[in-house]
Design brief:
Order of helices and strands: EHEEHEEEHEHEEHEHEHHEEHHH
Strand order of the largest sheet: 1-8-9-10
Structural class: alpha+beta
């Protein structure tokens, strides 16, 4: 049970966007280039921002230690991402878009503060605050509103890619509002889904496609009233993707994390190598929070970390179990810091982050995913559960 607020009943909402959303296209291009850099050199440093508009993609940022990832290679990666998503439209086509590169070498001032040396360990790549969160609302210990928002769009995408929903195009958004009773989600109060489509399909047909997907994704009996089931509310959605609205890396950070159910430090993840604590420390905070909940130590856990640029250790560490902790929270804070070295190097080593594993994270959320054989989503493992239960004398997992 997840006691999110002190009220007996309330409605909470989260949204998601598909891999074809303009901002998500940019996240995926940025992370594809990060992966290429790490494949060449696991210690490469990089930070990339991508912008997309009508038949135009622009990438900018900084890099060091991956000289083979040239401008030509970045262009190939960008086109491959757009091709895989499925954009072959007049206003945005993987073959035809203009590509502009403004990537430069990493600042020497940043490098000297971050690099390890004879007298210091590797420092954080920037100052900042990072949050991790977990709750018992879903099997993957994520907020239910975001969980179902992601799954609706993922199912539509799978149908589009397989040809089952061939009249749909890549750009799509979802929004799920759930009614909570005593902290537990009990039904959907409203569902909103907008999907780009080809001209020769009616809105009635689109509505029935979406209805079938939503009914299959939501638990039985959770469908909202017909008047609260919204599909393409503007009437049609033919012009979409970067031709309909420009995209930018890092503009969907709440979709990437917890759908608004938990705090967010403000830093984006995509486009950054794992020395950037915006990314790696947020993953570590989720990893710890998920293990706390999976071990049965709390129904809900929020963890905050903070760092100073060039400093190797976190300057603060806070665990919030929202009043339902089954253990001493001060002891829990100490135990978690003993289990995982939360320096930038310690996090990267523990979670094995210096690998080309980031492109899959750039759509449908960085959390609540299954760990993959190549090491992607290592922060979703619950391999600390046994140690936590042993330390606190708890034998039953959540």
């Amino acid at each position: 049970m997840s006691h999110q607020y002190d009220r007996d009943s309330y409605i909470f909402t989260s949204e998601s966007v598909s891999e074809g959303h303009p901002d998500k296209i940019c996240d995926q291009i940025s992370d594809a280039v990060v992966d290429a850099c790490l494949a060449e050199n696991p210690e490469a440093r990089c930070a990339f921002e991508t912008m997309a508009s009508t038949n135009r993609v622009i990438i900018a940022g900084e890099t060091r230690g991956a000289d083979k990832v040239t401008s030509k290679r970045m262009e190939e990666l960008a086109r491959n991402v757009v091709k895989d998503i499925g954009y072959e439209q007049e206003g945005f086509h993987w073959k035809n878009f203009e590509f502009h590169n403004h990537v430069h070498q990493q600042s020497a001032d940043i490098a000297q503060g971050v690099d390890s040396g004879s007298d210091k360990d590797e420092g954080a790549g920037d100052q900042g605050i990072m949050f991790g969160y977990a709750c018992t609302e879903t099997p993957v210990l994520m907020p239910a509103t975001l969980y179902y928002s992601h799954r609706i769009l993922h199912a539509l995408s799978d149908g589009r890619r397989s040809g089952k929903f061939a009249q749909l195009e890549p750009d799509a958004k979802s929004q799920v509002s759930l009614e909570y009773q005593k902290g537990v989600p009990v039904r959907a109060r409203s569902v909103v889904v907008s999907t780009q489509h080809k001209p020769d399909i009616s809105q009635k047909e689109i509505r029935e496609i979406i209805r079938g997907v939503v009914e299959n994704v939501l638990p039985k009996g959770w469908m909202p009233e017909e008047k609260e089931f919204y599909t393409n509310p503007t009437g049609q959605f033919i012009i979409g993707g970067p031709d309909g609205d420009s995209g930018l890396t890092g503009r969907k950070i709440i979709v990437d994390t917890y759908g608004g159910a938990a705090p967010h430090g403000g830093g984006a993840f995509s486009g950054k190598d794992p020395t950037k604590v915006d990314r790696s420390a947020a993953y570590a905070a989720r990893y710890l929070a998920k293990n706390v909940v999976a071990a049965g130590l709390a129904d809900r856990c929020t963890i905050q970390l903070s760092y100073a640029i060039g400093v190797s250790h976190p300057v603060s560490f806070f665990v919030n179990t929202h009043g339902d902790s089954k253990v001493d929270p001060i002891k829990l804070e100490k135990t978690l810091q003993q289990l995982v070295n939360l320096s930038p190097r310690g996090i990267r080593t523990h979670l094995k982050l210096n690998r080309p594993i980031y492109l899959p994270t750039a759509s449908y959320g960085h959390f609540g995913r299954e760990p993959e054989a190549n090491g992607a989503f290592s922060w979703e493992k619950t391999d600390l559960v046994a140690e936590l239960q042993r330390e606190f004398g708890i034998s039953n997992a959540a």
